[in-house]
Design goal:
Layout: H1 30-50, E1 57-58, E2 61-62, H2 74-96
Antiparallel strand pairs: 1-2
Helix pairs in contact: 1-2
């Protein structure tokens, strides 16, 4: 037990240890924030690519007698959701990446 409390003395009781270097108290570093912004940008771009005219619009006006095949485009069905999922994956990686 004396080895465990080797540096213990009555004078040091209640004093702060000023000799220890202060470590960075933030968990995220600059690289984490950059990755988070990249992930957020991918998510926003994905949602913007999903936007567009609805199924029943022609030239921006609602027409119940028409059908717009544009809602089934590759951009809306494949590319945009892939970008959103990639953005969320980058966000998870940015949060879990350890700061050195």
């Amino acid at each position: 037990m004396s080895k465990k409390n080797k540096n213990f003395s009555a004078e040091a009781f209640g004093k702060k240890e000023a000799d220890l270097p202060q470590e960075n108290s933030f968990y995220f570093g600059p690289q984490n924030y950059k990755l988070m912004l990249i992930g957020l940008a991918l998510i926003v771009i994905g949602f913007l690519l999903m936007m567009g005219a609805d199924a029943n619009t022609v030239d921006g006006k609602y027409d119940p007698n028409s059908w717009n095949e544009g809602i089934f485009s590759i951009r809306r069905i494949r590319i945009a959701p892939l970008l959103v999922i990639a953005g969320f994956a980058v966000e998870v990686y940015a949060i879990l990446k350890r700061n050195k």
